[in-house]
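pasting for ref
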Amino acid sequence: MFIDGLSPLANLSKLPSIVSLSILTWGIELLVYFAVSEAFATPMSVSVLVLFMVTVNFSSLIPAAPGAIGVIEAVTTTVLVSIGIEKELALSMVLSQHVIQYLVVGIPGLAILSTWKKQVQNIEQEMQNA
């Protein structure tokens, strides 16, 4: 299934829509980081917001506890402190972002995954009955 999911990348006619949707997705995510910085009365330049976003996303790739809980907070807080944000404020911002991520991405993703699991089970059952 993973390889099949990458197949649109081999189709050049789909490339413009893939790039456009990727830019839209990253733009929406960047707006979340902007909203978090505004909620904590910590205005950030676009470059700092991008750094915040990139740090969270790349630190989530480090093997850790489920959901990368702890790693994202430690790495991103350290990066934000290195650019002059107070440690407590940086940690609060990172924690808030992580909660938002779970609410907006995790819960709907879990719901979709559960429906896919049922569909896969139905397909497997049909194949066994055939």
